[in-house]
C-alpha cells in the first residue's frame, strides 16, 4: 500500500568522513540538517533527479570513532541517506560517504515490534497447511487493519459492504460513523465489526458530511473485502 511506503522512516547510518575531524564542529554541521532540506536524488536512484524538499525530524549521534560516525535519523519518506552523508562531507570540507545503513522504522512498522524472520513465516505456513495448526501463523501475521491505524476511519452499514466489494462508490447513506478527516485524506472504510473493506481518498471534509444527505464521500482506490462475504442488499432495476 502506498500509504505505508510513504510513511516516515527511521535509519541508523554509519558515515565515513574522509579526514580527521573535530567532533564538536562536525556535530554542529550534522545537527544543522534537522528541519526542511533541499535534496537532489543521487545518480543511482529509482526516481528522477529533481531538486526537492524533504524534512528531517531528528538526528541523534550515537557514536564517533576515528573517521566513522554512527547516527540515527528520523525523516520523510524519500530522503536519501547516502546523499545526506555526501552533503555533510561537502560542508565539512573534506568529503564523506555512507558506509552502512539500516532501516529501523517504516511508517508504523518498527524492527523491534513488527519484524519476523522468513524462516518463521515458512514454518508457520507449513504447520498451518500440514498440521492444521494456525497458532504460529497468527503470531507472525498481523491483521491488515493494523496498517490503517493512523488513517481516519469511516464505519459503514452491513448493507453497503457487498456493494463496495462489487465496485460501488461510498455514498453518504451507507455511513454510520466517522472520524474527522479532510478532503484528499487517505481514509479507511470499515465494517461495524472493524473489518477493513477498502481505502481511498476523501472527496469532502468530515464537516461537510455532518449535514449531507447524499453524494459520494470517498473515491475508493483499493477494495480488500471479498465479494459475497456480506449479503447483497441492492436490487436490480427492471428493464
Outline the structure in words.
The chain has 239 residues and is an alpha+beta fold. The protein folds into 3 domains: 2-110, Alpha-Beta Plaits (2-Layer Sandwich), CATH 3.30.70.3190; 116-142, no CATH class; 150-223, Roll (Archaeosine Trna-guanine Transglycosylase, Chain: A, domain 4), CATH 2.30.130. Helix content is 24%, strand content 33%. The chain has helices at residues 2-5, 23-31, 81-92, 118-131, 135-140, 158-165, 206-209; strands spanning 9-17, 35-39, 52-65, 68-75, 96-106, 109-110, 153-156, 170-171, 175-178, 186-190, 196-202, 216-223. The strands form 2 sheets. Strands 2-3-4-1-5-6 form a 6-stranded antiparallel β-sheet. The protein has a 6-stranded mixed β-sheet with strand order 8-12-11-10-7-9. A hairpin with a 5-residue loop joins β10 (186-190) and β11 (196-202). It is globular and about 75 Å long. The chain starts with a helix and ends in a 16-residue tail after the last strand.
